[in-house]
Amino acid sequence: MGDIVFIGNSITEGGKDWGAKLGIDNAKNRGISGNVKDGVLLRLGELIKYKPTSIFIMIGINDLFNLHYQK
């Protein structure tokens, strides 16, 4: 069975071991503190090539406060 991937910002990263929390062995945490949607979109292509069973995305809060997006 393929991995279950959690990708996103510090909220995802802060979850640490999602597999232990959810009682599954194949969960991978790919959260990065401070990440914005563009960063996640760039990393999605890399994740997809490994054909995970599921990808859960938590992103957006950092975009609200990023000056790049306020222009």
Structure description:
The protein has 71 residues and is an alpha/beta fold. The protein has a single domain, classed as Rossmann fold, CATH 3.40.50.1110. 38% of the residues lie in helices and 21% in strands. The protein is built from four helices and three strands. Strands 2-1-3 form a three-stranded parallel beta sheet. The longest helix is centred in the middle third of the chain and has 12 residues. The termini are far apart. 17% of the residues are buried. The mean pLDDT is 89.
What keyword list fits this structure?
alpha/beta, Rossmann fold, 3-stranded parallel β-sheet
Question: What number of structural domains do the residues give?
Answer: 1
Radius of gyration: 13 Å
Give me the count of strands: 3
Basic shape: flat
Averaged pLDDT: 89
Q: Largest beta sheet: what is the strand line-up?
A: 2-1-3
Task: Give the secondary structure arrangement, pairings included.
Layout: E1 4-8, H1 10-14, H2 18-22, E2 27-31, H3 37-48, E3 54-58, H4 61-65
Parallel strand pairs: 1-2, 1-3
Structure, briefly:
With 71 residues, the chain is α/β, with parallel strands linked by helices. It has helices spanning 10-14, 18-22, 37-48, 61-65; strands at 4-8, 27-31, 54-58. It has one domain (4-70): SGNH hydrolase (Rossmann fold, 3-Layer(aba) Sandwich), CATH 3.40.50.1110.
